[in-house]
Amino acid sequence: MKTAKEIVRYMETLQNDEQRNILMRFFKTGQGEYGEGDEFLGLKVPQTRQIVQTVAKDLPLHEVPLLLMSQWHEVRLCALLVMVARFERLATKRQERDEAAISGRDEILTMYLQHAEQANNWDLVDLSAPKILGHWLLLPTHLADDTDEQSYRLSVLDALAHSHNLWRQRMSMVCTWKTSQQGDPSWCLRYAEVHLHHPHDLMQKAVGWMLREMGKRVSMDLLRNFLQQHAHEMPRTTLRYAIEKMNDEERRHWMYGTP
Questions:
Q1: Angle at 73 between CA 194 and CA 197, to 5 degrees
Q2: pLDDT per residue over 129-156, tens digit each?
Q3: Please, which residues have CB within 8 angstroms of residue 52's CB and are 6 or more apart in sequence?
Q4: DSSP class of 56
Q5: Which residues, 6+ apart, have CB-to-CB distance to 171 below 8 Å?
Q6: d(C-alpha 124, C-alpha 228), whole Å
Q7: How many other C-beta atoms are found inside a 10 Å radius of the C-beta of residue 132?
Q8: Among 15, 108, 148, 197, which residue's Cβ finds the most Cβ atoms within 10 Å?
Q9: For the whole model, what pTM was predicted?
Q10: Stretch 174-182: mean pLDDT, rounded?
Q11: Treating both helix axes as pointing N-terminal to C-terminal, what angle do 99-114 and 73-89 enclose, rounded to 10 degrees?
Q12: Closest CA to 80 of 54, 107, 108
C-alpha cells in the first residue's frame, strides 16, 4: 500500500522540465494571470491517470487531502482523479441505493467541497466536478438531514455559485455537464442564469459550453428558448460557445440578429 508521501516522491521522479515550461505557459501561471504561482512537474494527463490506476490505486481515502495540499499541480490532479475513481465505483446502478455506498459517496463529496480551492485551475475543476459533484446531484444522499434532498443539493450548489472563489463558481457550472448527460436540463439552466453576467472569460466559456452540451444532450429547443430570452445580454464569448454546433445560418442569427 502506497502513502501520499510515497506517491509524491514517485511523481517527482517523473519531472520533465521541457513539458513543465509548456504547461506553466498554457495554464497562465505568470504574475496577474489566473494560475499565478502554480507549480508543475511536467507530467501529461495520461501519465497521471496511469498513476491513479496503479501506484495510487489502494491509497486510503484519509491520505487524499495530503495530495490535495501539494504544491504540484499534477499531484493535486492525482488526488482529484483518485476521488473520481472511488466515487464512480460507489455509483454503479447496483449501488445507487446501497447504504454503505451512499455514505461513501457523501464522504468523498464532503472532502471534495472542503478542499475545493485546491482544484485551482480549469482542468482540475473540469476533470472532477462533473463526475463527483454532478453525479452526486443525481443520487441519494444522507447529508440532507431534516431538509429534503433536492433543497439540500440546491443549497450546496448555490453556496458554490455565490462564493467569491472562481474555481468554486466554475464547479457549480461545469458539474451540470453530468446532469445534462442524464437528461436533466434544470441545473444547467439555473446556473447559466446565475453566472450569465460573470466578468471572467473562464466562466463565460463555461456557461456557453454547458449550454451547448445541454442543447445537444437534452433539447435544442430549450437552448433556443434560453437564447431567445438572454442572447441580447450575454457576453459574446458565452454566446459563441453556446451556438458553436449550430449551422452557419443559425449562428449568424444569434450573433448578429439576421433573419
A1: 15
A2: 999 999 999 999 999 987 799 999 999 9
A3: 78, 81, 82, 85
A4: T
A5: 116, 119, 125, 129, 133, 160
A6: 33
A7: 26
A8: 108
A9: 0.95
A10: 98
A11: 160
A12: 108
